[in-house]
Write a structure and sequence with these properties.
With 429 residues, the protein is of the alpha+beta class. It has helices spanning 10-20, 51-61, 71-75, 78-83, 98-101, 103-113, 126-136, 159-171, 242-260, 293-300, 305-313, 353-359, 395-407, 422-428, and strands at residues 2-7, 27-32, 42-43, 65-68, 89-90, 120-123, 140-144, 153-156, 183-186, 193-200, 205-207, 212-213, 216-218, 222-225, 230-233, 267-276, 279-286, 329-336, 363-367, 370-372, 378-380, 384-392. It has 4 domains: 2-90, Rossmann fold; 120-186, ATP-grasp fold, A domain (Dna Ligase, domain 1), CATH 3.30.1490; 191-319, ATP-grasp fold, B domain (D-amino Acid Aminotransferase, Chain A, domain 1), CATH 3.30.470.20; 329-428, Phosphoribosylglycinamide synthetase, C-terminal domain (Glycinamide Ribonucleotide Synthetase, Chain A, domain 4, Alpha-Beta Complex), CATH 3.90.600.10. It is built from 14 helices and 22 strands. Helix 1 (10-20) packs parallel to helix 10 and helix 7 (126-136) runs antiparallel to helix 8.
Length: 429
């Protein structure tokens, strides 16, 4: 099977790594990729948002499967362009991807499907913003309606901060934060958060193993929201029936509702969940694999990945055999550039990458924001630069291996959280 992956972050590196280990994959390509992906796939310079260019590349490569990684190309209709050429593609249509592209659309779908979620107001002007903030009170949860690369949500006790973010969203349609001129203000959901992925062909829904990520920039969940600073799987504290419950009350009803509307969702449905005192509630949906959760979920998946994604892309998931998982655990820690999640400093050399795997066969580095310099050296090229991922018989072992790997990498000004999976590992032991 010839596979083309679209994207260039740690999520795509994790996908490419798993696909490269699949014996059914005879050729692996990625566009645009990054310095790490170049070690396992042939890279191509193509604009990931240009559906026609991506489809042309897939056709030229005679790809048997195209996997669209990031949300922006999906919302832009890249999967549609590939699908129109008759090439199997893992990723929803632009219309179905509005489940992530518009929080208002997602709320409407959840209401129709009777999916449990937070109460919310959709606001388009200052008066509606003030009324919604007053209705819920602190903590305030304010979300850009559109895409914002994981940084469009503000959760704060401070009313002026919440109000300022909301007004920026309603006042800057199409602005740099991904605002649409609308903002969603919703009730705060208590309890721990869980990420649950599901592979679907628009009818059959096959859930993966749950993970937990860490969105705040600093230890103890301090600092601003980020795209994610680390993750772990499995969740020893979670109810063993959680996956079945979410499949029955969230994932399957959502897929059924989208099919009923004539916009079937085929690809990866990501449910961000809060385990509240009143039960499971959906925080948000994403239309693709999450980063950094993908790193730990795929590290534990023993089923070859290409066949699973191809079955979803071709509508044959119902006949796919049960998934197989390792008994152990996986932890990933994100190394971020100086000043991230603000404007990150880029162009710094990265050293010690080879030392991670050389010192421990159970640890490896996945590249996110990297590029090759003129002399072949690896340089930082984004906010989240690397994900150091490790596996082990339990969370404590996987965590220790991941942090030993982090310690071997040298990047000037970089920072990372030191508490990824700490509480879960302590509870497990």
């Amino acid at each position: 099977m010839k596979v083309l992956v679209i994207g260039g972050g740690a999520r795509e590196h994790a996908l490419c790594r798993s696909l490269s280990l699949d014996p059914d994959v005879t050729a692996l390509h990625c566009a645009p990729g990054n310095a790490g992906i170049a070690e396992v796939a042939e890279l191509h310079r193509v604009d990931a948002l240009d559906g026609r260019a991506v489809a042309d590349l897939a056709q030229r490569l005679a790809a048997d499967l195209v996997v669209v990684g990031p949300e922006a190309p999906l919302v832009a209709g890249v999967a549609d362009a590939v699908r129109d050429r008759g090439i199997p593609v893992f990723g929803p249509s632009a219309e179905a991807a509005q489940l992530e592209g518009s929080k208002a659309f997602a709320k409407d779908v959840m209401a129709a499907a009777n999916v449990p979620t937070a109460r919310a107001y959709l606001c388009t002007d200052e008066r509606e913003v003030d009324e919604a903030l007053d209705a819920f009170g602190p903590p305030y949860v304010v979300k850009d309606d559109g895409l914002a690369a994981g940084k469009g949500v503000v959760v704060t006790e401070d009313l002026p901060t919440a109000r300022a973010h909301a007004l920026a969203c309603v006042g800057t349609p199409g602005g740099p934060a991904g605002a649409t001129g609308r903002v969603v203000i919703e009730e705060f959901l208590d309890g721990p958060e869980v990420s649950l992925f599901a592979v679907t062909d628009g009818e059959t829904v096959l859930p993966l193993q749950p993970a937990q990520d860490f969105k705040r920039a600093l230890d103890a969940d301090e600092g601003p929201n980020t795209g994610g600073m680390g993750a772990y799987s499995p969740l020893p504290w979670a109810d063993p029936k959680l996956v079945d419950e979410v499949l029955a009350t969230v994932l399957q009803p959502t897929v059924d509702e989208l099919r009923r509307r004539g916009t079937p969702f085929s690809g990866l449905l990501y449910a961000g969940l809060a385990i509240t005192s009143r039960g499971v509630r959906v925080i948000e949906f994403n239309a693709r694999f999450g980063d950094p959760e993908t790193q730990v979920v795929l590290a534990r998946l023993k089923t070859p990945l290409a066949g699973l994604l191809h079955a979803a892309a071709t509508g044959t998931l119902a006949a796919f055999p049960p998934l197989r998982w390792s008994d152990g655990a996986a932890v990933t820690v994100v190394i971020a550039s100086h000043n991230y999640p603000g404007t990150p400093r880029t162009g710094d050399p990265i050293e010690g990458l080879a030392d991670v795997a050389d010192q421990d066969e159970h640890a490896y580095v996945l590249h996110a924001g990297t590029k090759l310099g003129e002399s072949g050296e690896v340089l930082s090229a984004g906010g989240r630069v690397l994900s150091v991922t490790a596996t082990g018989p339990d969370l404590s072992a996987a965590r220790d291996r991941a942090y030993r790997g982090v310690a071997r990498i040298r990047l000037d000004g970089a920072h990372h959280r030191t508490d990824i999976a700490a509480k879960a590992a302590s509870a497990e032991s």
